[in-house]
Amino acid sequence: MIRVEGRGLRKVFNRRVIFRDVSFSLGEGEVLLVTGRNGSGKSTLVKIISHVLSPTAGTVEFALDGAPVKGMAARHLGLVSPYLQLYDEFTAAEHLRFAMTIRGLRPDPAGADEVLRRVGLHHRKEDAVRTYSSGMKQRLKFAFALLHRPPVLLLDEPMSNLDAEGVAMVRGVMEEQRGKGVLVVATNDLTDIERYDARVDLNGRER
Amino acid sequence: MSGKIRALPWKGLLGVWTTLVIVLSLALPMVARPEHWYEFPIVPGLEDKARIIFFHVPTAWLSVLAFVSSMVYGIRYLRRKDLHDDVRSASAAGLGLLFCLLATVTGAIWAKFSWGAFWNWDPRQTSIFVLLLIYGAYFALRSAVEVEEKRATLAAVYSVIAGVVMPFFMFVIPRVLESLHPEPLLNLEGSAGSIPVPKLQMNTTMLAVFLASLAGFTGVYYWMWTLRVRAGTVELRRATEGEDRD
Amino acid sequence: MTPHPAAARPSWIRSALSVFRKDWQSELRTRYAVSALLMFVLTTIAIVLFALGTEGAPAHALAGMLWVVIFFSGMSGLARTFVTEEERGTAMTLQLTASPSAVYTGKLLFNLVLVYAVNAVAVLLFFFFIQGFEVRTASIFLVTLFLGSTGLAVMSTLIAAIIAKANTKGTLFPVLSFPLLLPLLLAVINATRLSAEGAFFTEALGEFQVLISYIGAVLTVSYLVFDYVWKD
Predict the structure, then answer these.
(1) Structure pTM?
(2) What is the interface pTM, i.e. ipTM, of the complex?
(3) Domains of chain A
(4) Where in chain B are the domains?
């Protein structure tokens, strides 16, 4: 059972307050929606929850079955974000092998195949990412984030660059995650997600 | 900061002290066999020019003190992430650079008096030069990072690494340089590592004035440092005032 | 049902080796660093050859020159591993998925392999082309080469991580590295000179001590401070 708690989060960047006093508490099966206009700090908040960026003040804590998760939460996290870059010279299959080994886990070729089929990239799995369209790259990001079955999934602008098929795939992923973990979605488009349990609106948080 | 020492008008006292030091160091006569308490012994070959010791050694001492101070405040910043610590660290480093430059120049002048050449690659000159390079690198790094917090962090880390490598200078440079380069003509005894410890024959008076100069210079350094920190703190406060309307 | 691989306990070593393998495979495919470095070594040695002309130079000068070539080669190639991640935006991917010490170790391993390879080539070219470059005590020379290269990689990797986060990366790298590498350079130049003069192995022990403690000190400090450099 995973819990994610954010308390009193505040981010100042180059002496500008991006947001302040952001708090939330999520348990298993819950969804957090983060909204705000461009530049309000949605992606920044997502990065902070992913422990990729440090907050100026406040904490984000993960707890697994009541025990706090110390240190890296890499194993328990999956992130899809426009800011997450992949390696042009590697193939999808290689990325998925890397997705496991970089987290210190053993490679899972069978699982990789399965998730590639799920995101619709299996037929291109031996091609270098350099040859991918932006929509395909977005799908690979999903594969990269899902392979290790993280209890916490963070999606920043999840539908970007995707066609109708891709959008349907994402909705399926979101539904599935809702059932077995924590889902955080940051988006401007409120049609992306219908039901949510908590919401952080970053508009007007800088004052 | 001066509030704590407000009881004593310490800056005024410092001024009197340093004036006295300068006068004494320049005015007291140097004689071959000092008989009176106010006389300095003559250093063969240097005579009056030896007086530079009252000014050169303190600058070298301060450049090391400033470095250590900068490193200590840098470590404090890494722990507490308080930008005021970074102001202290950078202020110390700036003064360190200044005094290091002075030390290099006065050291070169001394080298010219002693050995006929401005640059000698003896252990002390080399060490002070390396310290100068480190200061230069420190500021080059600072100017290359725009984000305040990152700048403070990287500068602090660099000063820590430099601090760790410092002991190697003290032990490696003297040994290696003496085997790579011949001894200078007039060997001032006691190249105690890279710390310029002149083993001129100093009598008590000379030693007293020397130590007084050291103390005076340190006082001046401290004063300059507090001024810089105050200026830096004001700038920090002014900039963050736009942040909160709490 | 076989347990899911993600259920296993993560291995730090696997993570570090993963970083190393990624850098290595990437290098094999693009060959940026290796070709640039080899060209650099060739060009510098050519310049040295022209400068020396037919006269040659005394043994200790050649010893110094070898390490000048090695130092500058290092400066031209050892920062790549961190700089490319920042430039391509993939640093965040690593920050997300691996612990800082695993990233550092992986990239250190990469730089070590690179440095050993390039320095071996530089040394061979020196022997081949430069008159008067002799080594009478091979044992001293080999140990010096190994320790010196290791120390160069260890320090350079840490500085590379620092400058990758700054603006003027290219010029900043040698500026930051040189003062801190000086003890290492002095020790290796001296030891190389000893090997050229045919000294006994034990005469170089002092230098080896310095080198080993230098490597130890810099490694320790690297692991302590890398977190601060790497995390944003």
Answers:
(1) 0.89
(2) 0.92
(3) 2-201 (3.40.50.300)
(4) 10-29+47-236
